[in-house]
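User: Could you walk me through two proteins back to back? I'd like the raw sequence and the structure tokens for each, with a short line separating them so I can tell where one ends and the next begins.

Assistant: Of course. Protein one, sequence then structure:
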Amino acid sequence: GLAIIAFIDMVQLSQNDICQPLLSKRLGNFIRKLHDGSKFQEEGLVFKRLDMLYGRLPLNTKENKLVELAIQTKSRLLESLSDLSDLKPSHADINPYNLLFDGKSFTLVDWATAAQESLYFDLAACARFFYYNDVECN
């Protein structure tokens, strides 16, 4: 599909930018607004996509210790993330390249992976891209 949106003079956010308490709070509110929005049609696609990708792997790759550990971790996560009340409209790929900021507001692009997912997927993506680094916020 194709979406036409207004031009956004983008400022790419860095970890240092996100360390600013006001900007970090605004991003949190932006994601909360997404999660409080209208329900998306499809549910639980992240685990289905992982199963599909795993099914395509050659046998020697499936037997790799890291791949086996990842599949075991996925199974534990599936149990932990199966609370239906946690299913929210989710972008499912929040990262600095999909998050536009014009100095005032945020816009998400690249909605190819969006679905009704556990809200923790978006939160984990934010933690991964904006907090899991060596930069310390003061």
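----
Protein two, same layout:
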Amino acid sequence: CYLANKITETNYHCEIKSTPGSIYNIEAIRSGELTIGVLQSDWQYHAYQGTGRYQKQGAFSELRSLFSVHAEPFTILARADSKIKQFEDLKGKRINIGTPHSGQRATMEMLLSLYKWDKKAFKEVFELTLNEQVKALCDDRVDAIIYVVGHPNSSIKEASGACRTKLVHVFGDKIDKLTAQTSYYQKAIIPGGMYRGSKGDTITFGVGAVVTTTSKLSEEVAYQLVKSVFENHEEFIQLHPAFKHLKKEAMVVNSITAPLHKGAIRYYKEVGLIK
């Protein structure tokens, strides 16, 4: 919003709205409550195509991408004393699966379906918010908490600093097949040493975060917004630690699972980022 509000060519004003996550954002964009929202690439794909949880609703064909930002690995943080080393070890444990309408909850439900598990596979299941789950982990109310998030992440740093924790691997034949068969999931590594208690690399999979709108947004506003971000790229990547390694070329193609907005296309063609 900081960069968007520097635009003088339009009358739009950007305000930040905190939401539960991707699933909420999709419905808020559909209803017009949000003009622009950040979506996980997997749920952007399913909403645009009308597949998965959106099969009954049908394709949200007006959905449009502006640009992608950071990768968001599926991240499990467990108590160091929980004996959880990989995803399969979550069975019989106390876990937080996230709030309804959050992207992390939807991705966890996808994994439960992939592994043919239900909630009975766990000792206890919680639906805590991102802020609540950190305290629950360190208070020994849960054994593991879940994020779909870019790294480094302040909440994970907070948890790993407040109590003894470790990141958990998510890999194996099922994950290999998942990443091979889909365009929106990729294998991912969370570098070792980023958080206390996790010295080695953590193997997992992930999605991308995509700044998304609809075809109803005017071409000029989309053009000016994208132009503001890309022409202030060095300033933009300082806004969040996860943006540090963003390259302009990657932001135009990585994790984009709904068509680019025509205003974005206009700018990218002007500067040679697409032909």
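The chain has a mean pLDDT of 93.

Let me know if you want the two compared in more detail.
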